[in-house]
Amino acid sequence: MKRVWWLAALAAAYGAVPLLLGADNYIMSLIVAAMVIGCVALSWALLGNLGGMVSFGHSAFFGVGAYVSAIVTVKLGVPVLAGLALGGIGALLASVVMLPVLRLRGPYFALAILAYAHIFRILATEWTSLTGGSGGIANIPGLPTILGYDMSGKTGAYLTILTIVLAFALAYRAIRASHYGTALRAMHDSEDATRVVGVNSTLLKGLMLMVSAFMAGVAGAFNAHYINFLEPDYAFNGLWVTLPIVAAIFGGYRTIAGPVVGALVVYLLDQLVFKTLIPTGHQLVLGGLLVAMIIFSPTGLLALLRRKDHA
After folding, report:
1. Is 77 helix (H, G, I), strand (E, B) or coil?
2. Are 143 and 152 in contact (CB under 8 A)?
């Protein structure tokens, strides 16, 4: 029965949403933005749930992925789809530079990753010959035409980011179900105990950091080709950290679907409801909603809905 529900949800996502909302560019643009946030939220949740690490610096991976893809497509003429993959690889390589901070734990690790995000933003600003500096990179190629369908439009962009998120969700599921996932979950209970039985906790954490970085980098690369412009303050903006964290916690970061569902609910509520009711300071309502969710359902929205179904 559960599989039937998921198949129905996928059918609705790929069929009903474009059919019913495809003509409304504003709504589709909000959904695409929410899916980008959901992709970063999924990568953040993977690192937190499997890696046991809280990151405040995912904007580093998002920004690096965006810049790598923009540079190779604009200056080297690399096809956009290859640029998306190279953006993810660029973010992965950026995470390799961060591996020494794996020795840190808790807030110290989170703050160290945040510091790296600031370093990459400064590099993007100062390395003007490559990145264009504060002036940014304009005329970034849009998404290509695939099988005769222009993916650069709102509906095409939605289908592209939906496919990316689905692929990452399936990868997350496969990792969690593997023996690596079992070892990572065991580390949460006692990292020292898992080391005694031969589990290399540092290596596993490093792998989760790299996978998470790749996912966030692809999201950043997609976003660069979606908006066709990039500059440092946007690419490395703190919102690419705070919104995904809020979305992941709201939806349920220990589930696979929770971060994506949370991003859709949180972002669309904020833009369509709260912003209309309270044009200034509407994010305060969002903060209050998150606090209420943490109090009444610390495990997130999906867990709350499941409890109501069983009640």
Report:
1. coil
2. yes
- For residue 284, give both structure tokens: 């305060």
Asked whether residue 50 carries a pLDDT value surpassing 90, the answer given is no
Instruction: Name the nearest CA neighbour of 133 among 117, 141, 121.
Output: 121
- Residue 149 DSSP symbol: E
Place of tokens 């190779």: 72
> For residue 71, what pLDDT is reported?
96
Q: Is 280 a domain residue?
A: no
HSE-CB for 309 with a 13 A CA cutoff: 7
Task: Say which residues have a Cβ less than 8 Å from residue 140's Cβ, sequence separation at least 6.
Answer: 70, 73, 74, 224, 225, 227, 228, 229, 230
Four-residue CA torsion sign, 183, 116, 239, 23: negative
Does a structural domain hold residue 267?
no
* Per-residue pLDDT at 235: 94
Question: CA–CA separation, 163 vs 160, rounded Å?
Answer: 5
Distance of alpha carbon 156 from alpha carbon 241, whole angstroms: 26
In a domain, 29, yes or no: yes
Please give the pLDDT value at position 276.
82
pLDDT for 202 equals 78
Is residue 91 within 8 A of residue 43, CB to CB? The reply is: no
d(CA 43, CA 52): 13
- Domain extent for 96: 17-238
The number of beta carbons lying within 10 Å of the beta carbon of residue 171 is 16
Count of structural domains, the chain: 1
Distance CA 75, CA 133 (A): 15
Cα distance between the two ends of the chain: 18
Tell me the three state secondary structure of residue 48. Answer: helix
Residue 259: pLDDT band with limits 50, 70, 90: very high
What is the dihedral sign for C-alpha 118, 119, 125, 126? positive
* Residues recorded for the chain: 311
C-alpha–C-alpha distance, residues 221 and 237, integer Å: 15
Residue 158 lies in a domain: yes
